[in-house]
Amino acid sequence: MAGPCVPAIFWCDADCGTMQFDERQVTSGRHRRFVEAQRNPACEVSTAMIRSLGLRSDLIVLHGLSEVEDHADRVVVRTPSEPTYWHGNLVIFRDDHVDAAAQLAAFRRDFPESEHVTLTWDAPDMRRGAAHDGLVDMGFDIEETDVLTRTGPVDGIPVPDGVLIRPIETDADWKQVTALHIETGVAEGYTRQSYTAFMRTRFINRRRQVAAGQACWLGAFDGDLLVGDLGVYQEDGIARYQDVETRESHRRRGICAALVAAGADWALARNPATILLILADGTGAAGRVYRHCGFSRTETIVSATRRAEGSFVAVGTPD
Question: Which superfamily, per CATH, for 163-302?
């Protein structure tokens, strides 16, 4: 299924045919309708390429959902069906130069109605520095995310006793996946009402991508209960893990590592030379799991986000 005009790391200029989203509101529980615009046959593919392997993998995850515009100084990524998705509606600047006022102004021109602001820089191994302080003064959170990679099968990771790992397929499966991610997000401090709407739309999109063959979604089940899940997107020699989650009651049992190994098996069966990739805090709990699975840091991405008011509350605050 076509998404952006061309494969994820290349794109057309903004006047090319792209995925269009039908903005008509529909009732809860019904899928929003996507309409694929015809590609302009006169459009020439830009040869511009994202340097960061991690940012290239972000575009793979957004394939079929997002519009990508190529400009001389920046790349603009829009996801019309998920306008509140910070990293699906952002501006990627082409180098490591940080100019808080000018880059905020550029985002505002590109997204005049957005309630959030997300900026990042196509500078592999960039680190947070003094230049980011101006953004902090403007209310931005600065995040360093490690890009962890490996090649080859993830061997020696057993599936815990009593747990079955299998693809997510049925309506009931997807309902459990969505519910697990909503509950985890609320526990982390996101406002239930807005986060529920966001996640429902997100997994409508995820399911659509799986049906199109862009990804595989795997679940870990303890009996009939979903206790963990993840997605794997594959394109252009990269297999990107996405939305890795484990139910709180079943953590520290090896379920996450077993899911990662199963995802690697799926990706490598399709392309034995693929690069397995995941984004995480390499020093945190999740990063330690991935390092146990043989992943190591390849680069670091720095991003700056100013959240929409009311999208996040302190954990334990009534919503």
Answer: Gcn5-related N-acetyltransferase (GNAT) (3.40.630.30)
